[in-house]
Amino acid sequence: MKKIALGLSTVALALAAANSQAGEVEVLHWWTSGSEATAINVLKQEMEDAGDTWKDFAVAGGGGESAMTVLKSRAIAGNPPAAAQIKGPTIQEWGDLGFLANIDDVAKAGHWDQILPPVVSNVMKYDGHYVAAPVNVHRVNWLWANPDVFRKAGASIPTTWDQFFVAADKIKKAGFIPLAHGGQAWQDATLFEAIALSEGTDFYKAAFIDLKDDALKGPKMIDALTTFKKMRQYVDPGFSGRDWNVATSLVINGKAAMQVMGDWAKGEFTSAGKKPGIDYICVPAPGTSGQYTFNIDSLAMFQVDGKDTQKAQKDLARLILEPKFQETFNLAKGSIPVRLGMPRDKFDTCADSSMDAFNAASASGDLLPSMAHGMAVNSMVQGAMFDVITNFFNTESMTPEQAADKLARAVKASM
Amino acid sequence: MNTNTANSGSKKTQSGRSARFSLADWMPKIVLAPTMIIAIVCIYGYMIWSAVLSFTNSRMLPSYKFVGWDQYERLFNNDRWMVALTNLGIFGSLFILICLFLGIMLAIFLDQKIRAEGALRTIYLYPMAISFIVTGTAWKWLLNPTNGIQKLMIDMGFENFKFDWLTNPDMVVYCLVIAAVWQASGFVMALFLAGLRGVDGDLIKAAHLDGASTFTTYRRIILPSLKPVFFSALVILSHIAIKSFDLVQALTNGGPGYASDLPANFMYTYTFTRSQIGMGSASAMVMLGCILAILVPYLYSELRGEKNEK
Amino acid sequence: MKNNPVARKTSGVSKVLRIALYTVLLAMAFFYLMPLVIMLITSLKDSEEVRNGTLLSLPAYLHFDSWTKAWSGACTGSTCTGISPYFLNSFKIVIPAVAISTLLGAINGYVISLWKFRGSDLFFAALLLGCFIPFQVVLLPMAQTLGWLGIASSTTGLVFVHVVYGVAFTTLFFRNFYQSIPGELVKAARLDGAGFFTIFYRIILPVSTPIIVVTVIWQFTQIWNDFLFGVAFSGFDSQPVTVALNNLVNTSFGGKEYNVDMAAAIIAALPTIVVYVLAGKYFVRGLTAGAVKG
């Protein structure tokens, strides 16, 4: 046995030695849909141009659930990947545990403090030091619509939730699916978040950022939950467990009229060869035109051994913020660059309006972190909210009052 | 059960024998040592470690701030956990009963000098060979109302046919039962078929000479003699039921809502995605408790049974 | 086997019964085959047919494109290698893990049933309990152990994990089988001067074929089909085929390619299906020979 262990560790040492020779970065991520993969390929190519080796460690499935398991197992085993796709408050959690690498020197050389909006750079810092590189900014509160379906149904694009239901009834009557939706907890939360946002910025802040008890079970929450439950009648029976991009393809193919989803959905429209304003329409989710819930993707840098690996890791951080990468990546993924002052000529009207909205919301104080995408609260609170929201949506007998009460209790229990 | 073993060996060597024999006496222990170490560290060590963690407030990674029974209290106040436990109750009992019923039935049927028995047996058995990560995709498709069996029946002209259990929170747990039965019942069939083939032929002949019908023979003579098989099947099936994880992960991912969650999935989600290692460990301890409740009587009867036979 | 309780009567009633029997058996066969058949049919259609046809409609003509794509062209993230490299990884994990755990199980079973010593029964009971530990519990401590041994994120590490959690089952199988070997056999051999390993090698192993077959089949399927350990303990280049399949199925490029998914699923399941089809007979025979007498 001992001999085996000895033999094994020799093999491992040999492997480790082999690993440290080349400048390699192992990047753990769950960008696996078509548009996401195109986007990540851009980065891979740039890394290889810089003389480093990119080791792609994609673990697909369920909003990164498996990927997080891998990351934890790797971190505990003492060999975390050089970079991993984590974001929001989770970056702080990993920072607390002392796993993240300081990349202040890259940030300084690239003037990150100047080129990044403060709302972005704050998330990327742990204890005042940069530990992660932001990739893009997604707007979450979007409504995607197929104008063809609207025309056939004689409906018009809604700007409030009341109008939404009027349009949805017409669309349903015309034989289309009014709302393309996938019954996964995070998608339910994305839809709910957009509805709650229409109850006002102050309410959103109180409920999803400050987690105030009276907001969580107050009348506005009950109102939002009531609207949310109504949506259940406008999704097709096969929605359960459906992936978001399959739902998007229902809109693309003209089987469904609308989808409430972040702008990663645009990536799917783009890779299907569709043009904004002609084949599909992007508008802010009803009742939230001045507001902006953001979701920032980022790669956090883990402490790794080996000079070459560290060099490659820093190359990666540097390249992510280069204008060229920011442009090509975000064109493919549907999001907008995190870098301020980027030329806009290549971006389409949706991205253009997203950039304007970002600046406007930032000035008016309506720029808000997304709860559904782990930007507002940590994974424990987020999970507790998901449970209540998704259960409420799928349980016919539960009233909005009960759900609000449950929400408040679940949040309290998870803190 | 034949249990005449050579256990008297060790007694003899104690009274002084050659060095070769005393080495032989140590040999069994030396040989068992690696497995023993593995069991102590990787099974019991980890279990104790989890038990300890269930009394701490560990979140993202293990920590050792003890909080007493808090995590258990929170666990049983958690709606989702209660759903998972209830589901395990429904799923487990239905799954075990249906598998046993189908398994015994198919085994008896196959035992009737059937043509092409080999082929049928293989067909019944093969689902056990395939992981649910593989077949989950196909099942998800079959059970999905918009493109599965429901659509097939509607296309065939049964306009009002409805089969939407997968999207119905009250029925989704039965989808898990269907898929799990599909996977494991063939294995139970194999166990019972093996048992039937091992039954003493003279016994059956004697029963027939006494004028017993086929049905009576099975009920009175053959099945009772298969008690050990019955027991093995029960243990294996409850083991599969409690550990069911891939099944839920691939078929429903706990949905709709969390209506189809099982304890193993609850534990995984809380430990790894929710960063609630303390509560995840507490749920694991409850699962272990359930397993012990099933297994200890089995082990007890197994080991006691041997003593009686000596 | 000759004394089958159904006498060969040819009366009308038994004929009807016989037909009913076959009907039930065939209906069940249909139930068991359905998912596989649908997977197979779907994998042979092109995407257009998948979208427009029903589940059971046969493909107009056979497309093997999705098979080649699943094998060597489908993408996950930025890697487009299909599942073939992972298929190889699985073999690298399964073969040593099955060999080691079977061998350990055989020796353990041999000791526990034929060389009993004080505490060996207790040890067996403890090991049996170990079969039932929920594997999710061990992920974190095992990760730490693997890191400490220096074999984390490698196929070696996965072999280690599978041996550790497989040996309880293999021991159980062999122990139950060896229970039926008379102790006198070993006693007599010892009086003739045969040692521990000689007896094992000369007397025990030659009669163990049925149970070895059962154990190998069981372990092979268990390890090949494992997903949880595979995803938690593999590196980017040591993922087994189940993990690759999961990645592939969850990856979609503007609409799902069900035909490729299904082809990949069948490829991933082929080795175990082949094992069951070829060795299924011996599996039942091995079970008869003792494994079920637990």
From TrEMBL, chain A:
The keyword Cell membrane does not apply. SUPFAM superfamilies: Periplasmic binding protein-like II. Residues 1-22 form the signal peptide. Pfam families: SBP_bac_1. It is found in: Periplasm. Keywords: Signal, Transport. InterPro entries: Bact_solute-bd_prot1 (IPR050490), SBP (IPR006059). It comes from the Bacteria. Transmembrane segments: none annotated. Its main location: periplasm. Belongs to the bacterial solute-binding protein 1 family. Part of a binding-protein-dependent transport system for a sugar. This is Probable sugar-binding periplasmic protein. The lineage of its organism: Bacteria, Pseudomonadati, Pseudomonadota, Gammaproteobacteria, Oceanospirillales.
UniProtKB/TrEMBL annotation, chain B:
It is found in: Cell membrane. Its main location: membrane. Residues 85-300 form the ABC transmembrane type-1 domain. Gene3D superfamilies: MetI-like. The keyword Electron transport does not apply. It is a multi-pass membrane protein. The chain crosses the membrane at residues 30-52, 88-110, 122-142, 171-196, 221-242, 277-300. The keyword Cell membrane applies. SUPFAM superfamilies: MetI-like (SSF161098). PROSITE patterns: ABC_TM1. Belongs to the binding-protein-dependent transport system permease family. This is Sugar ABC transporter permease. The lineage of its organism: Bacteria, Pseudomonadati, Pseudomonadota, Gammaproteobacteria, Oceanospirillales.
